[in-house]
């Protein structure tokens, strides 16, 4: 089970699709379209932070449960990334301390039953590049969100991944890598992933 994480717009879904096409992985997509409150959350974060976190926690748990039953799974975003959002929202006063306390308790209970990924691919980018990609993608609720939110998220992500040790991490800075449109960049990223898989002997484990 390989997980791809990183800030919004960094290219997680795009890379996941490449791994599906080029490496035969089975995708576990982030629930954006079928998310009943994501849009509302962006316009009223105080009201929707807590239910949104519970929604994502539950979805992530389902994905991990199902992904751990198959040989080559790739997940778009991780349960660990959710904690970054939850902490950030609590720090900003958009999720109350009581709600964050309940969230942490629920998380602690769930994580005991979650298999850690065999590899975490952390896609790192400058906030400017992430916002450029968010703008190109054009989800209206993200376009209406202030830049400071994306800056805070990036800062929290970087800090979190400096200390993350639940699994091996492959960190890739994607600021100058257009693996979506440039075949050379795509091959380069795939080679990094293949090398890491070989180094960790994940292929052997998966046989
Ligand atoms: N490496 C890349 N270089 C340039 N644009 C990219 C790259 N990867 C993805 N994109 C574009 O950036 C936007 C966000 O990509 P996406 O994969 O949906 O990000 P995420 O899943 O991390 O939010 C999309 O419009 C996508 O086409
Ligand atoms: N845990 C989360 N809290 C708040 N918002 C979240 C969380 N997980 C995902 N999101 C948002 C961020 C994006 O608007 C969409 C999808 O993420 P993406 O990085 O584009 O895959 O959901």
Automatic annotation (TrEMBL):
<dbReference type="InterPro" id="IPR031314">
    <property type="entry name" value="DNK_dom"/>
</dbReference>
<feature type="binding site">
    <location>
        <position position="77"/>
    </location>
    <ligand>
        <name>substrate</name>
    </ligand>
</feature>
<keyword id="KW-0808">Transferase</keyword>
<keyword id="KW-0418">Kinase</keyword>
<feature type="binding site">
    <location>
        <begin position="133"/>
        <end position="137"/>
    </location>
    <ligand>
        <name>ATP</name>
    </ligand>
</feature>
<dbReference type="InterPro" id="IPR002624">
    <property type="entry name" value="DCK/DGK"/>
</dbReference>
<feature type="binding site">
    <location>
        <begin position="6"/>
        <end position="14"/>
    </location>
    <ligand>
        <name>ATP</name>
    </ligand>
</feature>
<feature type="binding site">
    <location>
        <position position="30"/>
    </location>
    <ligand>
        <name>substrate</name>
    </ligand>
</feature>
<feature type="binding site">
    <location>
        <position position="142"/>
    </location>
    <ligand>
        <name>substrate</name>
    </ligand>
</feature>
<feature type="binding site">
    <location>
        <position position="82"/>
    </location>
    <ligand>
        <name>substrate</name>
    </ligand>
</feature>
<dbReference type="GO" id="GO:0005524">
    <property type="term" value="F:ATP binding"/>
</dbReference>
<feature type="domain" description="Deoxynucleoside kinase">
    <location>
        <begin position="2"/>
        <end position="195"/>
    </location>
</feature>
<dbReference type="Pfam" id="PF01712">
    <property type="entry name" value="dNK"/>
</dbReference>
<dbReference type="GO" id="GO:0019136">
    <property type="term" value="F:deoxynucleoside kinase activity"/>
</dbReference>
<keyword id="KW-0067">ATP-binding</keyword>
<feature type="binding site">
    <location>
        <begin position="177"/>
        <end position="179"/>
    </location>
    <ligand>
        <name>ATP</name>
    </ligand>
</feature>
<feature type="binding site">
    <location>
        <position position="42"/>
    </location>
    <ligand>
        <name>substrate</name>
    </ligand>
</feature>
<keyword id="KW-0547">Nucleotide-binding</keyword>
<feature type="binding site">
    <location>
        <position position="53"/>
    </location>
    <ligand>
        <name>substrate</name>
    </ligand>
</feature>
<dbReference type="InterPro" id="IPR050566">
    <property type="entry name" value="Deoxyribonucleoside_kinase"/>
</dbReference>
<dbReference type="GO" id="GO:0005737">
    <property type="term" value="C:cytoplasm"/>
</dbReference>
<comment type="similarity">
    <text>Belongs to the DCK/DGK family.</text>
</comment>
<protein>
    <submittedName>
        <fullName>Deoxyguanosine kinase</fullName>
    </submittedName>
</protein>
<feature type="active site" description="Proton acceptor">
    <location>
        <position position="76"/>
    </location>
</feature>
<dbReference type="InterPro" id="IPR027417">
    <property type="entry name" value="P-loop_NTPase"/>
</dbReference>
